Amino acid sequence: MDTKKLLAKEKKYCSWGDTVHYLEPPKFFDRCEGSTLYDKEGRKFLDLQMWYSAASFGYANPRLAAALKKQIDKLPQLACQYLHEEKVELAEKIAKSMERLFGEKGRVHFNVGGSQAVEDSLKLVRNHTGKNFVFAFMGGYHGRTLGASAITSSYRYRRRFGHFSDRAQFVPYPYCYRCPYGKKYPDCGMYCVKQFEKLFETEYNGVWDAKAEASEYAAFYVEAIQGTGGYVIPPKEYFPMLRKILDRHKILMVDDEIQMGFHRAGKLWALANFNVTPDIVVFGKALTNGLNPLSGIWAKEKLINPKVFPAGSTHSTFSSNTLGTAVGLEVMKLCEESNYEKTVTQKGKALLSRFKSLQKKYPKVIGDVNGMGLALRVEIVKPDGYAPDRTLADRIFAEGMKGDIQTQKGRFGLVLDVGGYYKNVFTIAPSFGITEDEMDLAIELFEQLVRRCTKKR
Ligand SMILES: Cc1ncc(COP(=O)(O)O)c(C=O)c1O
After folding, report:
1. How far apart are CA 254 and CA 241, in angstroms?
2. Quick check: 40 and 415 in contact, CB under 8 A?
3. Which atom of ligand 1 is nearest to the CA of 118?
4. Sign of the Cα pseudo-torsion (138, 112, 372, 99, in order)
């Protein structure tokens, strides 16, 4: 069926409550491979965001697709009240990876989708502490179920849905390029984390009962690198300092690795770049390279052992489904065999240096450029070189989706994702398989988009 007819049907029969209509008209795709998406008309699009890091190992990855096909022929479905081999093997691999990187023993519990795993982590926190207030970061994103929305910073996601009695207390994130306190790193002396510490100085700051030595807040939800918040990378001292404050006040640290996990920031778990150990880890997205909505939580043994978190504490019909666990297991094997820590870091540096060259050429368009692993950020700014330019970012994004940029390698589109506090940041998350040629193409396409969109500025 042609695109026009499909669009007419979509207009009539599909809810617009998802994110499809962020772009008008929305875009259909028909095929995908490696770093490339193809539309129905056969146009090619280089993808620099890989489904917000859910397809990190490349579209239609043959090894992962084969694992899925094999499972379809062997054990395509099974009620998750029964066991199957891949579930147990996958849980072991994840638990052992936590032991290796964080030095802690624990267990894994699966669910479907990131937000649902966040919900499960909230249950663990409540179960362990008996409390339901948590801290989370300004600029943080943890999903759009009701519980996850309550700890996600954007009021936009809560506004029409009534009162959120357990909405998180949001704390400024160390976003140094636009420091919430107007300071400059490193002269700031980590002012932000010291401000957080001050909350516990007196009971009149509303979080701490000094007599009982108890906090009203059970946990702090963190993203090691903010995803939707614009791939913001904190200074290396931040998390170790924060962890000490949390330990002193018996507050758990929950590490949301849904977007940055599975090597996006170099190491398997992004928080491992910062030398701190979380109490709970939440993961999803790239666990199955987007082939199945499997997600999960890992927690320290004391939080999740069967005595404290017994049968039926949380459940979904599709959690630990056989197809998802088979692909997840293959992803973990791929990670063990591939040394992504090294290759993702090297490729990230290569791409970052190309974007930095572009920034030098266009200082009135590109502000901050930074990255860790293959999680890169490119801030689009006004001609003063600093003020966020959301309109231009939107225009570049929309132009990229047209698929009509003539390059030395033929006609292409460029798939980008816009994020950040001011919606002016391209959050760049390419496939781990991106080649040097594709990096050159990415820069050629991005530069052409910048030129095209700043003509009438
Ligand atoms: C850090 C983080 N947490 C949670 C979520 C929610 O995951 P899902 O969209 O699978 O519900 C996302 C999704 O973008 C995310 O990036």
Report:
1. 15
2. no
3. 4
4. positive
Element (H, E) at 412: strand 410-415
Q: Report the C-alpha gap between 37 and 25 in whole angstroms.
A: 18
- pLDDT level of residue 2 (50, 70, 90 thresholds): confident
Q: Which CATH number fits domain 3-60+340-454: 3.90.1150.10, 1.10.10.60, 1.10.287.180, 3.20.20.60?
A: 3.90.1150.10
Ligand 1 binding pocket, CB closer than 6 Å: 52, 113-115, 118, 141-143, 223, 227-228, 256, 258-259, 284
Name the residue ranges covered by the structural domains of the chain.
3-60+340-454, 75-338
CATH topology of domain 75-338: Aspartate Aminotransferase; domain 2 (3.40.640)
**Do the beta carbons of residue 377 and residue 418 sit within 8 Å?**
no
**What's the gap in Å between 143 CA and the centre of ligand 1?**
5
Distance in Å, CA 420 to ligand 1 centroid = 15
**Tens-digit pLDDT profile for residues 19-36:** 999 889 899 999 999 999
Q: What is the pTM of this model?
A: 0.97
